[in-house]
Amino acid sequence: MKGRLEGRVAIVTGGGHGIGKAYATRLASEGAKIVIAEIDEKAAQAVAQELTAAGYEALGMRTDVSDPASVEKMAAAAIERFGRIDVLVNNAAIFATVPMSRSPFDQITVDEWDRMMTVNLKGTWLASCAVIPQMRNQGYGKIINISSGTALKGSPSRIHYVTSKAGILGFTKTLANEVGKDNICVNCVAPGSTLSEENPDEGIIKMRNQAASSRALKRVQSPDDLTGAIVFFASADSDFITGQTLVVDGGSCLH
Ligand SMILES: NC(=O)c1ccc[n+]([C@@H]2O[C@H](COP(=O)([O-])OP(=O)(O)OC[C@H]3O[C@@H](n4cnc5c(N)ncnc54)[C@H](O)[C@@H]3O)[C@@H](O)[C@H]2O)c1
Q1: Is the beta carbon of 32 within 6 A of some atom in ligand 1?
Q2: Ligand 1 center to residue 32 CA distance, Å?
Q3: pTM, to two decimals
Q4: From the CB of 40, is ligand 1 less than 6 Å away?
Q5: Which residue's CA is minimally distant from atom 30 of ligand 1?
Q6: 59 CB near ligand 1 (under 6 Å)
Q7: Phi and psi for 127 in degrees, rounded to 5?
Q8: DSSP letters along 47-92, please?
Q9: How does pLDDT run along the chain (255 residues), one tens digit per residue?
Q10: Does the Cβ of 242 fall within 6 Å of ligand 1?
């Protein structure tokens, strides 16, 4: 049976670990050719090799989304290897693999605040700028930004992270307006607290279990719980949907 993304080319930033890896794997299983654009080059190559061994087409490359030259290279490599870019998943962020502190608002360093905005927000903008010329040429494209449920309901700490993810909501709506005339859809997925860590310690497992108890669907969220929403926004099923945010959190943030 043909997948829903047969013939499509998808870039997943931060696709070497955690939830991004699950996005890359699921998009590949739906027929897309995949570029894993990841700051951890080893991880990018490892995921690309895994996908290739499973019979899919994939390219892994070191990419720093906060560096304009690096995301330009990412887009050029995707076009050179696969000839087009249909989907960009702006998933890379400072979160777990490149860790953030969970400090109170007045104990976050200025450097960490700036780095958070540079990767999570500016990186999303830069990666979008790098792929949109190709999407415009094609007259078709899907940009999927990753926010967080915390941007909608607040959080007891990590104000820099939550602020960056709230920025993604406005970015999504405005970019959707600007590129709609080019038939490019821009949507957003806001995950809930997800057990994405590769080697979670007891504290992390406790935190993820606590999140499970406060949602309608009372279980721990896994990366695979998020992939259906990504395929939907990447596929023709959502061709007349843009500027939207879909919260995928088992009914924690009901808005
Ligand atoms: N896990 C959760 O509970 C949760 C909840 C809400 C939202 N999210 C969001 O989902 C996305 C994935 O989260 P995750 O839990 O898999 O975390 P993660 O830290 O494992 O994944 C982020 C990925 O981005 C990569 N990365 C970091 N800086 C980069 C850069 N400058 N350029 C390119 N790649 C870079 C990391 O190496 C990593 O592979 C993030 O945007 C995160 O904010 C996660």
Answers
A1: no
A2: 21
A3: 0.98
A4: yes
A5: 64
A6: no
A7: -65, -35
A8: HHHHHHHTT--EEEEE--TT-HHHHHHHHHHHHHHHS---EEEE--
A9: 679 999 999 999 999 999 999 999 999 999 999 999 999 999 999 999 999 999 999 999 999 999 999 999 999 999 999 999 999 999 999 999 988 988 899 999 999 999 999 999 999 999 999 999 999 999 999 999 999 999 999 999 999 999 999 999 999 999 999 999 999 999 999 999 999 998 999 999 999 999 999 999 999 999 999 999 999 999 999 999 999 999 999 999 998
A10: no
Active site residue 56: no
Atom number in ligand 1 closest to CA 90? 41
Q: Distance (Å, rounded) from C-alpha 206 to C-alpha 135?
A: 43
List the domain boundaries for the chain.
9-248
Residues whose CB falls within 8 Å of the CB of residue 154, separated by 6 or more in sequence, listed in order: 162
18 CA distance to ligand 1 middle (Å):
7
Which CATH number applies to 9-248? 3.40.50.720
